[in-house]
Amino acid sequence: MDTSDIENLPKPQIVAAVRSDSALTRARNMRPFEHLERLMRRFSPAERLLLYLLSILLGLSVVGLLVSVNSAISTEVPARGGSFVEGETGSARFINPILAISDPDEDLSQLIYSGLMRALPNGTYVPDLAESYSVSPDGTTYTFTLRENLTFHDGAPVSSADVLYTVALAQNPDIKSSQRADWEGVEVSAPDASTVIFTLPHAYAPFIEDTTLGILPQHLWQNVQSDSFPFSPLNTHPIGTGPYKVAQVKTDAAGAPIRYDLVPFDNFALHGGYLSRVSFAFYPNQEALVRAFASGQVDAVAGVTPSVLEKFVREDTSVLVTPLPRVFGIFFNQNHNAVLADASVRQALEEALDKQGIVNEALHSYGSVLNSPIPPGVLGSAKPAIVLPTGGNTAHGSSTTSFSTDAAIATLKKAGWSVASSTGIWTKNIPKSGTTPASKQEVSFKLATANEPELVTTANLVAEQWRAIGIDVDVQVYPISDFNNTVLRPRNYDAILFGEVVSRSGDLFAFWHSSQRNDPGLNLSLYANSKADALLSKARTSSSKEERDDLYSQFIEIVQKDRPAIFLYSPDFIYIVPTKIRDIQLGALSSAAERFLNIYQWYSDTERVWEFFAADTSSADPSIHQ
Question: For residue 158, what are the domain limits?
Answer without folding.
Answer: 83-316+579-624
